[in-house]
Amino acid sequence: MESMEDRLKKIVRSVFNLGPSGSLDGLVYKDHPRWDSLGHIQLILSLEKEFRVKFSSEDVVSVRTLEDIASLLRKKGGQAS
Amino acid sequence: MNFIGNLGPLIDGKTGEVHEGGALKSRIRRRAAELAVEGILGGDRVALAYGNSPELLIDLLALWERHACAIPLDPGLPASEVERVLQHAEARMLLSPGRTQRLRDSSRREAGEALILYTSGTTALPKGIVHTFEGLASKFRALTENIEAASWKTVLCLLPMHFGHGLICNCLWPWLASRGLVLFPSNDLEVFSRLGEAVDRYRADFFSTVPSIWRWVLHTGAAAPRMKTLKRVHCASAPLDEPLWEQANAWTAGAPVVNVYGTTETAGWIAGTAPGERPEDGSVGGGWGCEFQVREAREGVGEVWARTDALMKGYLGRPEMTAAVLRAGWYRTGDLGRLDDRGRLHLRGRLDDVINKAGLKIYPDDVEEVLKQCAGVADVCVFGEPHPLFGEEVAAAVVLKGDALSRVQSWCDGKLAGFKIPRKWYPLKEIPRNERGKVSRRRVLELCRG
Protein backbone atom coordinates (compact mmCIF):
# COMPACT_ATOMS: atom_id res chain seq x y z
CA MET A 1 0.00 0.00 0.00
CA GLU A 2 1.27 3.46 -0.92
CA SER A 3 2.46 5.47 2.09
CA MET A 4 0.92 8.80 3.02
CA GLU A 5 4.23 10.53 2.18
CA ASP A 6 4.26 9.01 -1.33
CA ARG A 7 0.65 10.03 -1.95
CA LEU A 8 1.46 13.54 -0.76
CA LYS A 9 4.45 13.80 -3.09
CA LYS A 10 2.36 12.55 -6.00
CA ILE A 11 -0.21 15.29 -5.40
CA VAL A 12 2.42 17.99 -5.02
CA ARG A 13 4.04 16.90 -8.30
CA SER A 14 0.68 16.89 -10.04
CA VAL A 15 -0.53 20.27 -8.69
CA PHE A 16 2.73 22.08 -9.41
CA ASN A 17 3.49 20.17 -12.65
CA LEU A 18 6.89 19.10 -11.32
CA GLY A 19 7.31 15.93 -13.35
CA PRO A 20 8.03 12.45 -11.99
CA SER A 21 11.76 12.88 -11.42
CA GLY A 22 12.15 16.47 -10.20
CA SER A 23 13.38 16.96 -6.65
CA LEU A 24 10.92 18.11 -4.04
CA ASP A 25 13.64 18.95 -1.52
CA GLY A 26 13.49 22.45 -0.14
CA LEU A 27 10.09 23.20 -1.69
CA VAL A 28 8.62 26.05 0.38
CA TYR A 29 5.37 27.98 -0.02
CA LYS A 30 5.96 31.35 -1.75
CA ASP A 31 9.58 30.40 -2.58
CA HIS A 32 8.65 28.52 -5.76
CA PRO A 33 7.00 30.30 -8.72
CA ARG A 34 4.25 27.69 -8.93
CA TRP A 35 3.63 27.49 -5.16
CA ASP A 36 2.06 30.94 -4.84
CA SER A 37 -1.20 31.70 -3.04
CA LEU A 38 -3.35 30.39 -5.91
CA GLY A 39 -1.14 27.27 -6.14
CA HIS A 40 -1.52 26.80 -2.37
CA ILE A 41 -5.29 26.91 -2.66
CA GLN A 42 -5.20 24.28 -5.42
CA LEU A 43 -2.86 22.12 -3.32
CA ILE A 44 -5.16 22.31 -0.29
CA LEU A 45 -8.22 21.40 -2.40
CA SER A 46 -6.38 18.43 -3.93
CA LEU A 47 -5.17 17.20 -0.52
CA GLU A 48 -8.66 17.45 0.95
CA LYS A 49 -10.01 15.34 -1.90
CA GLU A 50 -7.27 12.71 -1.83
CA PHE A 51 -7.09 12.27 1.95
CA ARG A 52 -10.73 13.05 2.71
CA VAL A 53 -9.84 15.59 5.33
CA LYS A 54 -10.86 19.18 5.90
CA PHE A 55 -8.35 21.91 6.56
CA SER A 56 -9.41 24.86 8.69
CA SER A 57 -8.43 28.42 7.87
CA GLU A 58 -5.73 28.14 10.55
CA ASP A 59 -4.41 24.84 9.09
CA VAL A 60 -4.14 26.41 5.65
CA VAL A 61 -1.78 29.15 6.78
CA SER A 62 0.22 26.97 9.17
CA VAL A 63 1.74 24.76 6.46
CA ARG A 64 4.67 26.01 4.38
CA THR A 65 6.63 22.83 3.57
CA LEU A 66 5.89 19.22 2.65
CA GLU A 67 7.00 18.21 6.15
CA ASP A 68 4.43 20.60 7.65
CA ILE A 69 1.71 19.08 5.48
CA ALA A 70 2.74 15.50 6.31
CA SER A 71 2.72 16.32 10.00
CA LEU A 72 -0.73 17.92 9.77
CA LEU A 73 -2.10 14.94 7.81
CA ARG A 74 -0.78 12.57 10.48
CA LYS A 75 -2.56 14.62 13.16
CA LYS A 76 -5.79 14.52 11.18
CA GLY A 77 -5.62 10.70 11.01
CA GLY A 78 -8.36 8.74 9.20
CA GLN A 79 -7.77 8.33 5.47
CA ALA A 80 -4.77 10.59 5.84
CA SER A 81 -2.59 8.22 7.86
CA MET B 1 -6.98 69.23 -9.53
CA ASN B 2 -6.21 68.81 -5.86
CA PHE B 3 -6.23 65.17 -4.84
CA ILE B 4 -4.50 65.51 -1.46
CA GLY B 5 -6.82 67.97 0.28
CA ASN B 6 -8.77 65.41 2.33
CA LEU B 7 -6.51 62.41 2.82
CA GLY B 8 -7.53 59.88 5.43
CA PRO B 9 -5.01 57.96 7.52
CA LEU B 10 -3.16 55.07 5.88
CA ILE B 11 -2.60 51.94 7.92
CA ASP B 12 -0.24 49.11 7.08
CA GLY B 13 -2.39 46.07 7.87
CA LYS B 14 0.63 43.79 8.40
CA THR B 15 2.57 45.98 10.83
CA GLY B 16 -0.25 48.16 12.18
CA GLU B 17 1.81 51.28 11.43
CA VAL B 18 -0.43 54.34 11.05
CA HIS B 19 0.35 57.31 8.77
CA GLU B 20 -1.94 60.25 9.64
CA GLY B 21 -3.46 62.30 6.84
CA GLY B 22 -1.68 65.58 7.74
CA ALA B 23 1.74 63.94 7.93
CA LEU B 24 1.02 62.11 4.69
CA LYS B 25 0.28 65.36 2.91
CA SER B 26 3.66 66.79 3.99
CA ARG B 27 5.40 63.58 3.00
CA ILE B 28 3.75 63.59 -0.45
CA ARG B 29 4.81 67.21 -1.01
CA ARG B 30 8.41 66.41 0.02
CA ARG B 31 8.42 63.44 -2.33
CA ALA B 32 7.02 65.61 -5.14
CA ALA B 33 9.87 68.07 -4.54
CA GLU B 34 12.39 65.20 -4.73
CA LEU B 35 10.87 64.06 -8.02
CA ALA B 36 11.13 67.64 -9.32
CA VAL B 37 14.84 67.61 -8.47
CA GLU B 38 15.10 64.33 -10.38
CA GLY B 39 13.68 66.21 -13.37
CA ILE B 40 10.19 64.71 -13.44
CA LEU B 41 7.93 67.06 -15.38
CA GLY B 42 4.20 67.20 -16.03
CA GLY B 43 3.13 64.33 -18.31
CA ASP B 44 6.22 62.20 -17.60
CA ARG B 45 5.49 58.53 -17.07
CA VAL B 46 6.92 56.82 -13.98
CA ALA B 47 6.48 53.15 -13.07
CA LEU B 48 5.84 52.09 -9.48
CA ALA B 49 6.69 48.54 -8.41
CA TYR B 50 5.72 48.40 -4.76
CA GLY B 51 2.87 45.97 -4.37
CA ASN B 52 0.28 46.87 -1.75
CA SER B 53 1.97 49.42 0.49
CA PRO B 54 1.59 53.00 1.71
CA GLU B 55 4.68 53.91 -0.37
CA LEU B 56 2.79 53.10 -3.57
CA LEU B 57 0.07 55.62 -2.75
CA ILE B 58 2.54 58.24 -1.47
CA ASP B 59 4.61 58.07 -4.67
CA LEU B 60 1.51 57.98 -6.86
CA LEU B 61 0.15 61.16 -5.32
CA ALA B 62 3.59 62.80 -5.40
CA LEU B 63 3.62 62.12 -9.16
CA TRP B 64 0.12 63.58 -9.46
CA GLU B 65 1.32 66.69 -7.58
CA ARG B 66 3.84 67.03 -10.44
CA HIS B 67 1.04 66.35 -12.99
CA ALA B 68 3.01 63.25 -13.97
CA CYS B 69 1.56 59.86 -14.88
CA ALA B 70 1.87 56.78 -12.62
CA ILE B 71 2.19 53.21 -13.91
CA PRO B 72 1.61 50.78 -11.02
CA LEU B 73 3.17 47.40 -11.79
CA ASP B 74 2.51 43.94 -10.43
CA PRO B 75 5.65 43.21 -8.37
CA GLY B 76 5.24 39.54 -9.30
CA LEU B 77 5.82 40.14 -13.01
CA PRO B 78 8.81 38.41 -14.58
CA ALA B 79 11.70 40.76 -15.42
CA SER B 80 11.13 40.34 -19.17
CA GLU B 81 7.54 41.56 -18.86
CA VAL B 82 8.53 44.53 -16.67
CA GLU B 83 11.16 45.48 -19.26
CA ARG B 84 8.63 45.28 -22.09
CA VAL B 85 6.13 47.46 -20.23
CA LEU B 86 8.78 50.07 -19.34
CA GLN B 87 9.87 50.23 -22.98
CA HIS B 88 6.33 50.39 -24.26
CA ALA B 89 5.36 53.19 -21.87
CA GLU B 90 8.63 55.04 -22.47
CA ALA B 91 8.80 55.35 -18.70
CA ARG B 92 11.37 57.82 -17.38
CA MET B 93 11.81 56.17 -14.05
CA LEU B 94 11.07 53.02 -12.08
CA LEU B 95 10.44 53.49 -8.37
CA SER B 96 10.48 50.47 -6.04
CA PRO B 97 11.10 50.05 -2.28
CA GLY B 98 14.25 52.02 -1.47
CA ARG B 99 15.24 52.33 -5.12
CA THR B 100 15.04 54.96 -7.85
CA GLN B 101 15.99 53.69 -11.30
CA ARG B 102 16.42 56.34 -14.00
CA LEU B 103 15.51 54.85 -17.38
CA ARG B 104 15.75 57.74 -19.84
CA ASP B 105 16.54 61.45 -19.74
CA SER B 106 13.40 62.49 -21.50
CA SER B 107 10.23 60.79 -22.61
CA ARG B 108 7.12 61.38 -24.61
CA ARG B 109 4.93 63.54 -22.37
CA GLU B 110 1.18 63.72 -22.66
CA ALA B 111 -0.55 66.35 -20.55
CA GLY B 112 -3.52 65.17 -18.55
CA GLU B 113 -2.53 61.49 -18.31
CA ALA B 114 -2.75 60.31 -14.69
CA LEU B 115 -2.57 56.54 -14.70
CA ILE B 116 -1.65 53.69 -17.03
CA LEU B 117 -2.84 50.25 -15.99
CA TYR B 118 -1.29 47.35 -17.87
CA THR B 119 -3.63 44.39 -18.21
CA SER B 120 -1.13 42.53 -20.35
CA GLY B 121 2.53 42.99 -21.05
CA THR B 122 3.54 39.48 -21.98
CA THR B 123 3.64 39.92 -25.75
CA ALA B 124 5.40 42.41 -27.97
CA LEU B 125 2.28 44.59 -27.90
CA PRO B 126 1.45 45.28 -24.25
CA LYS B 127 -1.97 46.62 -23.39
CA GLY B 128 -1.72 49.79 -21.29
CA ILE B 129 -5.01 51.49 -20.39
CA VAL B 130 -4.60 55.25 -20.07
CA HIS B 131 -6.74 57.25 -17.66
CA THR B 132 -6.73 61.02 -17.34
CA PHE B 133 -6.96 63.21 -14.23
CA GLU B 134 -10.29 64.46 -15.44
CA GLY B 135 -11.65 60.95 -15.98
CA LEU B 136 -10.55 59.81 -12.53
CA ALA B 137 -12.05 62.88 -10.85
CA SER B 138 -15.29 62.09 -12.64
CA LYS B 139 -15.12 58.47 -11.41
CA PHE B 140 -14.67 59.58 -7.79
CA ARG B 141 -17.67 61.92 -8.12
CA ALA B 142 -19.84 59.18 -9.65
CA LEU B 143 -19.01 56.74 -6.86
CA THR B 144 -19.76 59.36 -4.18
CA GLU B 145 -23.11 60.11 -5.82
CA ASN B 146 -24.13 56.45 -6.13
CA ILE B 147 -22.74 54.71 -3.02
CA GLU B 148 -24.02 55.55 0.46
CA ALA B 149 -20.67 56.01 2.20
CA ALA B 150 -21.17 59.17 4.27
CA SER B 151 -20.80 57.33 7.58
CA TRP B 152 -17.74 55.27 6.64
CA LYS B 153 -14.59 55.88 8.64
CA THR B 154 -12.36 52.96 7.64
CA VAL B 155 -12.04 50.65 4.65
CA LEU B 156 -9.85 47.59 4.12
CA CYS B 157 -8.04 46.67 0.91
CA LEU B 158 -7.37 42.97 0.26
CA LEU B 159 -7.09 43.29 -3.53
CA PRO B 160 -4.07 43.92 -5.76
CA MET B 161 -3.41 47.65 -6.07
CA HIS B 162 -2.03 47.53 -9.60
CA PHE B 163 -5.57 46.93 -10.92
CA GLY B 164 -8.42 49.43 -11.31
CA HIS B 165 -10.73 47.57 -8.94
CA GLY B 166 -8.26 47.57 -6.04
CA LEU B 167 -6.47 50.86 -6.70
CA ILE B 168 -9.08 53.30 -8.03
CA CYS B 169 -12.24 52.02 -6.40
CA ASN B 170 -11.28 50.23 -3.20
CA CYS B 171 -8.35 52.51 -2.25
CA LEU B 172 -8.19 55.93 -3.90
CA TRP B 173 -11.87 56.81 -3.91
CA PRO B 174 -12.47 56.41 -0.14
CA TRP B 175 -8.98 57.44 0.97
CA LEU B 176 -8.91 60.71 -0.99
CA ALA B 177 -12.27 61.49 0.63
CA SER B 178 -10.84 61.29 4.18
CA ARG B 179 -11.60 57.64 5.02
CA GLY B 180 -8.93 55.59 6.78
CA LEU B 181 -7.46 52.94 4.49
CA VAL B 182 -5.95 49.70 5.81
CA LEU B 183 -3.68 48.03 3.26
CA PHE B 184 -3.08 44.28 3.33
CA PRO B 185 -0.85 42.27 0.99
CA SER B 186 -2.94 41.27 -2.00
CA ASN B 187 -4.50 37.82 -2.24
CA ASP B 188 -2.88 36.83 1.04
CA LEU B 189 -4.29 33.62 2.51
CA GLU B 190 -3.32 34.62 6.06
CA VAL B 191 -5.35 37.80 5.66
CA PHE B 192 -8.34 35.84 4.31
CA SER B 193 -8.16 33.34 7.18
CA ARG B 194 -8.33 36.19 9.72
CA LEU B 195 -10.61 38.50 7.77
CA GLY B 196 -13.27 38.72 10.49
CA GLU B 197 -10.60 39.58 13.06
CA ALA B 198 -9.23 42.31 10.76
CA VAL B 199 -12.72 43.80 10.32
CA ASP B 200 -13.11 43.92 14.13
CA ARG B 201 -9.60 45.22 14.83
CA TYR B 202 -9.97 48.18 12.48
CA ARG B 203 -13.73 48.58 12.99
CA ALA B 204 -13.97 48.44 9.22
CA ASP B 205 -17.01 49.83 7.43
CA PHE B 206 -16.23 48.47 3.99
CA PHE B 207 -14.05 46.27 1.80
CA SER B 208 -14.29 44.93 -1.73
CA THR B 209 -13.77 41.38 -2.94
CA VAL B 210 -13.88 39.01 -5.87
CA PRO B 211 -16.07 35.85 -5.75
CA SER B 212 -13.12 33.49 -5.26
CA ILE B 213 -12.23 35.28 -1.99
CA TRP B 214 -15.69 34.40 -0.72
CA ARG B 215 -15.44 30.80 -1.92
CA TRP B 216 -12.16 30.44 -0.05
CA VAL B 217 -13.25 32.25 3.14
CA LEU B 218 -16.38 30.10 3.31
CA HIS B 219 -14.60 26.87 2.34
CA THR B 220 -12.05 27.24 5.13
CA GLY B 221 -14.62 28.39 7.67
CA ALA B 222 -12.77 31.63 8.44
CA ALA B 223 -14.44 33.28 11.42
CA ALA B 224 -16.87 36.12 10.72
CA PRO B 225 -16.50 39.47 12.49
CA ARG B 226 -17.94 39.59 16.00
CA MET B 227 -18.64 43.31 15.97
CA LYS B 228 -21.26 44.90 13.73
CA THR B 229 -19.12 47.61 12.17
CA LEU B 230 -19.39 46.54 8.52
CA LYS B 231 -21.83 48.66 6.50
CA ARG B 232 -21.29 47.29 3.02
CA VAL B 233 -19.14 44.85 1.03
CA HIS B 234 -18.60 44.80 -2.71
CA CYS B 235 -17.98 41.83 -4.96
CA ALA B 236 -16.75 42.46 -8.52
CA SER B 237 -14.38 41.33 -11.31
CA ALA B 238 -16.13 37.97 -11.88
CA PRO B 239 -19.69 36.60 -11.86
CA LEU B 240 -21.30 36.23 -8.41
CA ASP B 241 -23.99 33.57 -8.21
CA GLU B 242 -26.95 33.70 -5.86
CA PRO B 243 -25.96 30.84 -3.50
CA LEU B 244 -22.53 32.41 -2.94
CA TRP B 245 -24.14 35.84 -2.47
CA GLU B 246 -26.44 34.36 0.20
CA GLN B 247 -23.57 32.71 2.07
CA ALA B 248 -21.45 35.86 1.88
CA ASN B 249 -24.37 37.88 3.25
CA ALA B 250 -24.70 35.43 6.14
CA TRP B 251 -20.97 35.90 6.93
CA THR B 252 -21.22 39.71 6.91
CA ALA B 253 -24.24 39.46 9.26
CA GLY B 254 -26.34 42.34 8.05
CA ALA B 255 -23.88 44.29 5.92
CA PRO B 256 -25.16 43.99 2.35
CA VAL B 257 -22.94 42.27 -0.21
CA VAL B 258 -23.38 44.28 -3.41
CA ASN B 259 -22.71 42.74 -6.82
CA VAL B 260 -20.70 45.26 -8.80
CA TYR B 261 -19.67 45.54 -12.44
CA GLY B 262 -16.67 47.37 -13.79
CA THR B 263 -13.78 47.15 -16.21
CA THR B 264 -10.29 48.62 -16.21
CA GLU B 265 -11.25 50.65 -19.29
CA THR B 266 -14.02 52.37 -17.31
CA ALA B 267 -11.73 52.98 -14.30
CA GLY B 268 -13.55 50.28 -12.37
CA TRP B 269 -17.08 50.19 -10.99
CA ILE B 270 -19.83 51.39 -13.35
CA ALA B 271 -22.87 49.52 -12.00
CA GLY B 272 -24.05 47.77 -8.88
CA THR B 273 -27.09 46.15 -7.32
CA ALA B 274 -29.00 47.94 -4.59
CA PRO B 275 -28.16 46.80 -1.03
CA GLY B 276 -30.12 43.61 -0.36
CA GLU B 277 -30.91 43.04 -4.04
CA ARG B 278 -30.18 39.50 -5.19
CA PRO B 279 -27.83 39.11 -8.19
CA GLU B 280 -30.54 37.07 -9.92
CA ASP B 281 -30.04 36.19 -13.55
CA GLY B 282 -26.59 37.82 -13.51
CA SER B 283 -27.91 41.18 -12.33
CA VAL B 284 -25.34 43.88 -11.70
CA GLY B 285 -27.99 46.53 -11.11
CA GLY B 286 -28.15 50.03 -12.52
CA GLY B 287 -25.42 52.34 -13.80
CA TRP B 288 -23.21 54.40 -11.49
CA GLY B 289 -22.39 57.46 -13.60
CA CYS B 290 -22.71 55.22 -16.63
CA GLU B 291 -25.28 54.55 -19.36
CA PHE B 292 -25.63 51.17 -21.02
CA GLN B 293 -26.85 49.94 -24.38
CA VAL B 294 -27.15 46.34 -25.55
CA ARG B 295 -26.41 46.17 -29.26
CA GLU B 296 -26.99 43.54 -31.89
CA ALA B 297 -29.21 41.71 -29.45
CA ARG B 298 -30.77 38.34 -30.12
CA GLU B 299 -33.71 37.59 -27.84
CA GLY B 300 -32.65 40.62 -25.80
CA VAL B 301 -29.07 39.50 -25.25
CA GLY B 302 -26.24 41.29 -27.02
CA GLU B 303 -22.97 43.10 -26.48
CA VAL B 304 -22.92 45.62 -23.66
CA TRP B 305 -21.77 49.14 -24.59
CA ALA B 306 -21.05 51.65 -21.84
CA ARG B 307 -20.82 55.45 -21.79
CA THR B 308 -19.21 57.20 -18.86
CA ASP B 309 -17.12 60.33 -18.26
CA ALA B 310 -14.56 58.08 -16.58
CA LEU B 311 -13.78 56.20 -19.77
CA MET B 312 -10.14 55.55 -20.63
CA LYS B 313 -8.36 57.82 -23.09
CA GLY B 314 -7.33 54.69 -24.99
CA TYR B 315 -4.78 51.87 -25.15
CA LEU B 316 -1.32 53.39 -25.09
CA GLY B 317 0.28 53.36 -28.54
CA ARG B 318 -2.42 51.12 -30.01
CA PRO B 319 -4.75 53.34 -32.03
CA GLU B 320 -6.34 50.49 -33.98
CA MET B 321 -7.17 48.55 -30.84
CA THR B 322 -8.54 51.75 -29.27
CA ALA B 323 -10.66 52.52 -32.33
CA ALA B 324 -12.09 48.99 -32.23
CA VAL B 325 -13.62 49.55 -28.77
CA LEU B 326 -14.26 53.32 -28.53
CA ARG B 327 -16.98 54.68 -30.80
CA ALA B 328 -18.45 58.16 -30.41
CA GLY B 329 -17.99 58.18 -26.65
CA TRP B 330 -19.22 54.62 -26.17
CA TYR B 331 -17.08 51.68 -25.06
CA ARG B 332 -17.81 48.17 -26.29
CA THR B 333 -17.14 46.02 -23.25
CA GLY B 334 -16.97 42.57 -24.88
CA ASP B 335 -19.46 41.43 -22.24
CA LEU B 336 -22.77 39.87 -23.18
CA GLY B 337 -25.88 40.99 -21.38
CA ARG B 338 -29.42 42.27 -21.42
CA LEU B 339 -31.20 45.28 -19.99
CA ASP B 340 -34.44 44.60 -18.13
CA ASP B 341 -37.49 46.86 -18.22
CA ARG B 342 -36.13 48.85 -15.25
CA GLY B 343 -32.88 49.52 -17.15
CA ARG B 344 -30.87 47.20 -14.94
CA LEU B 345 -28.07 45.24 -16.51
CA HIS B 346 -27.83 41.43 -16.42
CA LEU B 347 -24.55 39.86 -17.58
CA ARG B 348 -24.37 36.61 -19.52
CA GLY B 349 -20.67 35.96 -20.17
CA ARG B 350 -18.00 37.17 -22.60
CA LEU B 351 -17.78 37.50 -26.36
CA ASP B 352 -14.06 36.73 -26.36
CA ASP B 353 -11.92 33.98 -24.83
CA VAL B 354 -10.32 35.98 -22.02
CA ILE B 355 -9.73 33.76 -19.00
CA ASN B 356 -10.96 35.02 -15.63
CA LYS B 357 -8.96 33.28 -12.90
CA ALA B 358 -10.00 34.50 -9.45
CA GLY B 359 -10.79 37.94 -10.92
CA LEU B 360 -7.43 38.12 -12.76
CA LYS B 361 -7.81 38.45 -16.53
CA ILE B 362 -5.54 36.36 -18.74
CA TYR B 363 -5.42 36.69 -22.51
CA PRO B 364 -4.86 33.25 -24.10
CA ASP B 365 -2.94 34.82 -27.03
CA ASP B 366 -0.38 36.24 -24.62
CA VAL B 367 0.34 32.88 -23.01
CA GLU B 368 0.43 31.15 -26.42
CA GLU B 369 2.94 33.69 -27.76
CA VAL B 370 5.30 32.84 -24.92
CA LEU B 371 4.81 29.08 -25.23
CA LYS B 372 5.45 29.19 -28.97
CA GLN B 373 8.95 30.45 -28.19
CA CYS B 374 9.70 27.20 -26.34
CA ALA B 375 11.74 24.85 -28.55
CA GLY B 376 9.76 21.86 -27.28
CA VAL B 377 6.38 23.19 -28.43
CA ALA B 378 5.18 22.60 -32.01
CA ASP B 379 1.70 24.03 -31.48
CA VAL B 380 -0.39 25.26 -28.58
CA CYS B 381 -3.87 26.39 -27.64
CA VAL B 382 -4.53 28.08 -24.29
CA PHE B 383 -8.03 28.24 -22.85
CA GLY B 384 -9.98 28.63 -19.62
CA GLU B 385 -11.20 25.50 -17.90
CA PRO B 386 -13.95 25.66 -15.25
CA HIS B 387 -12.59 25.61 -11.70
CA PRO B 388 -14.70 25.28 -8.53
CA LEU B 389 -12.91 28.01 -6.63
CA PHE B 390 -11.19 30.29 -9.13
CA GLY B 391 -14.07 30.30 -11.63
CA GLU B 392 -11.59 29.40 -14.37
CA GLU B 393 -8.12 27.85 -14.50
CA VAL B 394 -5.54 28.35 -17.25
CA ALA B 395 -5.20 25.20 -19.37
CA ALA B 396 -2.99 24.46 -22.37
CA ALA B 397 -3.31 21.87 -25.13
CA VAL B 398 0.18 21.33 -26.56
CA VAL B 399 1.71 19.44 -29.45
CA LEU B 400 5.19 18.52 -28.23
CA LYS B 401 8.29 18.44 -30.40
CA GLY B 402 10.03 15.54 -28.70
CA ASP B 403 10.55 17.37 -25.40
CA ALA B 404 9.04 15.99 -22.23
CA LEU B 405 6.02 17.97 -21.03
CA SER B 406 7.75 18.64 -17.70
CA ARG B 407 10.55 20.49 -19.53
CA VAL B 408 8.02 22.70 -21.27
CA GLN B 409 6.31 23.35 -17.93
CA SER B 410 9.60 24.31 -16.23
CA TRP B 411 10.43 26.54 -19.18
CA CYS B 412 7.47 28.78 -18.28
CA ASP B 413 8.91 29.72 -14.87
CA GLY B 414 10.24 33.27 -14.97
CA LYS B 415 8.76 33.91 -18.41
CA LEU B 416 5.14 34.18 -17.36
CA ALA B 417 3.66 35.68 -14.19
CA GLY B 418 2.68 32.84 -11.84
CA PHE B 419 -1.08 33.26 -12.32
CA LYS B 420 -0.72 33.02 -16.12
CA ILE B 421 1.21 29.73 -16.12
CA PRO B 422 -1.10 26.94 -17.30
CA ARG B 423 -1.86 24.52 -14.46
CA LYS B 424 -3.68 21.96 -16.59
CA TRP B 425 -1.84 20.51 -19.59
CA TYR B 426 -3.18 18.31 -22.37
CA PRO B 427 -0.63 16.85 -24.82
CA LEU B 428 -2.34 16.37 -28.21
CA LYS B 429 -1.19 15.04 -31.58
CA GLU B 430 -2.59 18.14 -33.25
CA ILE B 431 -4.60 21.21 -32.39
CA PRO B 432 -7.90 21.10 -34.30
CA ARG B 433 -8.36 24.03 -36.68
CA ASN B 434 -11.12 25.01 -39.05
CA GLU B 435 -10.64 25.29 -42.82
CA ARG B 436 -9.29 28.84 -42.39
CA GLY B 437 -6.70 27.60 -39.90
CA LYS B 438 -8.44 29.21 -36.94
CA VAL B 439 -8.52 27.47 -33.56
CA SER B 440 -11.81 27.19 -31.70
CA ARG B 441 -10.81 27.27 -28.04
CA ARG B 442 -14.22 25.95 -27.06
CA ARG B 443 -13.73 22.93 -29.32
CA VAL B 444 -10.25 22.29 -27.90
CA LEU B 445 -11.68 22.50 -24.37
CA GLU B 446 -14.35 19.91 -25.25
CA LEU B 447 -11.75 17.65 -26.84
CA CYS B 448 -9.41 17.87 -23.83
CA ARG B 449 -12.16 17.35 -21.27
CA GLY B 450 -13.48 14.35 -23.20
Question: Can you put this structure into words, describing what you see?
Answer:
The complex is a heterodimer of chains A (81) and B (450). Chain A has one domain: Non-ribosomal Peptide Synthetase Peptidyl Carrier Protein, Chain A (Orthogonal Bundle). Chain A has helices at residues 4-15, 37-51, 57-62, 66-76. In chain A, helix 1 packs antiparallel against helix 2 and helix 1 (4-15) crosses helix 4 (66-76). Chain A is built from 4 helices and no strands. In chain A, 54% of the residues lie in helices and 0% in strands. The longest helix of chain A is centred in the middle third of the chain and has 15 residues, at 37-51. With 81 residues, chain A is mainly alpha-helical. Chain B is an alpha/beta fold and 450 residues long. Chain B has helices spanning 21-37, 54-65, 79-89, 133-146, 164-176, 189-193, 195-201, 211-219, 242-252, 319-325, 364-372, 405-412, 441-449, and strands at 10-12, 18-19, 45-48, 69-72, 93-96, 99-102, 113-120, 127-132, 154-157, 180-183, 206-209, 232-235, 257-263, 268-272, 283-287, 290-298, 301-308, 314-315, 326-327, 330-339, 345-350, 355-357, 360-362, 377-387, 391-400, 424-427. In chain B, strands 1, 2, 9, 10, 11, 12, 13, 14, 15, 16, 17, 19, 20 and 21 form a 14-stranded mixed sheet that branches. A 4-stranded mixed sheet of chain B has the order 4-3-5-6, with helices on one face. In chain B, a hairpin with a 2-residue loop joins strand 16 (290-298) and strand 17 (301-308). In chain B, helix 8 (211-219) packs across helix 9 (242-252). The model of chain B has no long low-confidence stretch (mean pLDDT 94). Chain A binds chain B through residues 15, 17-22, 33-34, 36-42, 45, 55-58, 60-61, and chain B through 76, 187-190, 192-194, 216-217, 220-223, 357-358, 388-390, 404-407, 409-410, 413-414, 418-419, 421, 423, 425.
